Amino acid sequence: QQGCYEKAIANQAVITDMIDDFAKMTEFEISMAAKVFACGCTFDELKKSLVGDSAKKVLFGILVTSLREMTNDYSEPDATEEKDEKSSLAAFSLEYEGGNADSMEVKKFKGHLDVIGSFCKKNVSFDEIHHVAYSAAGDARSQILEQLGAPESNGERNREGKSPQPTEESNSKFDPSTYSDTDKTAYYRAIEVFGADNVPSGDEILQQLRQPLGFPYNWVLFEPSKKELVVKDAGSGGVMELTKLLQEEKYDDCVLFGFVRLSFSADEIGRRQFWVGLEWKGENCFGVKAMRKFRECCGPMTRMVGDRSFTLSNVAASEMRLELFVENVKRNCQVNDFKVTVETMKNAHVEEQNEIKEYWKKYEDERDAEAETKRKAEEKRLRSRRDKIESVRDSHRSRWSKMDVTELLGDLGKDDVCGWVLMEF
C-alpha cells in the first residue's frame, strides 16, 4: 500500500510538471499546436458551430464583426459600399469551455491563455481586441453589442433581422376623422397630421375653392397683406362651419379677408355654386392700427383673391347666419330658375361632405398603394444587398477553408468583411 501511494504521488508530480511546462510554451509553439476548429462570417454561424461535438472542447476564438452584422441591419447604405459607424469593424476574443470538457484540458487551457492571446493579437490587424466570455450565445451577443455601442433593446429587437410588426392602428380602416376633427378646422387638422410645411399655400387653397368640385377646402380666411395670400384658417365644412366659427368670436379681434364656395342643390337643378368674398373686422378690433391695415390691404386683397359673386362686408358676428348668405345670393345673383333656400344649401352641404369623405378615401388608397410600391422596392433592394454581401462572404469562406490558423487570423477583417475563427490546441 505504501508503494502504491508513493507511485501515485510520483505520477501526480509528473503531470504537474507537464502542465507547468505546457503553460510555459512559446508563441511559436502555440502557433504550431493551434488548429482551426471552425471558421465563418457571421455570429449566428459561430453559434451554430458550438453545438454537438463542441460540448467536449475547450476553444479560443477571434471574432471580427460590426454593429450592422450583429443586428442584421441592412436598412442603411450597403456596408461594402459606404462606411458608417454601424459598419466599423471591431475584434473580440472568445473563451469557450464545453459543458463536457475534460477538467485537465480546461486547466491546461487556462494555463496558457496569456500566450494564446498574445499570439492572436500579433497576427490580427486590429490594435485592440475586446474580451468576451462565451457562456451562452445570448450573453455573448449582449456583451458584443454593448462594446459596439448598441442599446440592449436595439440588439434584442433587431438581432433576428425582423421588421417591426404593424400596429393595430396602422391596419385600421379609413377614418375621415383623421383629417376632419370636430374641434379643429381641416386646415389646422392637416397641420397636425402632415406638418406645417406640408399644408397647401394660400394660392393653392384659393385654386381649390374656385373649382366647382375642388376638395377638400370650401372656405378660407386670409390675413391682411399687400403682397401675398397668407392663410389664417381654412375648412371643409362650408358656410355652416364658417358662420359657426365667426359666431364663436374666435376671430373677434382680427381683420381678415375670406372667400367661400357656396353651394345649393335641388332635384330640378342639380348643384349650383356661387363664390362669396368676405371682409371681416372683428367687433373687438377697433384700434387705429387695425383700421389702417384694413384700408391699406382691402384693395390688394380684393385683386389677389379675384372675382366673386358678391362680397359681405361690415357684418357683425351675430349676423353671420345661413339666412344672410341666402338673402345676398337672391339679391346679387340671377336665381330665378331655382329655389335658393337654407334647405337647398343644406342638401348641397350633405352631398359635398360625402364627396369629401370619398376624396380622403381615395387619397388614403393612393397613399397606401404608393407605400406598398416603395415597400416592395425596398424589399428588392435589401434582398439584392443581402445577396451581394452573401456572395462576398462565400468567397471568404472558400478562401479561409484553405488557410491555417496564422493565415486566417491575418485575413480576418480584410475587405471590411466580418469573420471569425475558433481554435483548439
Count of alpha and pi helical runs? 15
Radius of gyration, whole Å = 39 Å
**Helix and strand string, N-terminal first?**
HHEHEHEHHEHHHHEEHEEHEHHHE
Report the strand count. Answer: 10
Explain this structure to me?
By secondary structure, this protein is of the alpha+beta class. 48% of the residues lie in helices and 17% in strands. The protein contains 15 helices and 10 strands. The chain has helices spanning 2-23, 27-33, 43-49, 67-71, 103-111, 113-123, 137-148, 152-158, 186-194, 202-210, 238-247, 288-305, 322-332, 342-400, 405-411, and strands spanning 35-40, 58-65, 90-97, 129-133, 219-223, 230-235, 255-266, 270-281, 310-313, 419-424. The strands form 2 sheets. Strands 1-10-2-3-4 form a 5-stranded mixed sheet, sandwiched between helices. The protein has a 5-stranded mixed sheet with strand order 6-5-7-8-9, with helices on both faces. α1 packs across α5 (103-111) and α2 packs across α6. The longest helix has 59 residues, at 342-400. It is rod-shaped. The chain starts with a helix and ends with a strand. The model is unreliable at 154-172 (pLDDT under 50).
Describe the structure concisely for a colleague.
With 425 residues, the chain is of the alpha+beta class.
Show the helix and strand layout.
Blueprint: H1 2-23, H2 27-33, E1 35-40, H3 43-49, E2 58-65, H4 67-71, E3 90-97, H5 103-111, H6 113-123, E4 129-133, H7 137-148, H8 152-158, H9 186-194, H10 202-210, E5 219-223, E6 230-235, H11 238-247, E7 255-266, E8 270-281, H12 288-305, E9 310-313, H13 322-332, H14 342-400, H15 405-411, E10 419-424
Parallel strand pairs: 3-4, 8-9
Antiparallel strand pairs: 1-10, 2-3, 2-10, 5-6, 5-7, 7-8
Helix pairs in contact: 1-5, 2-6
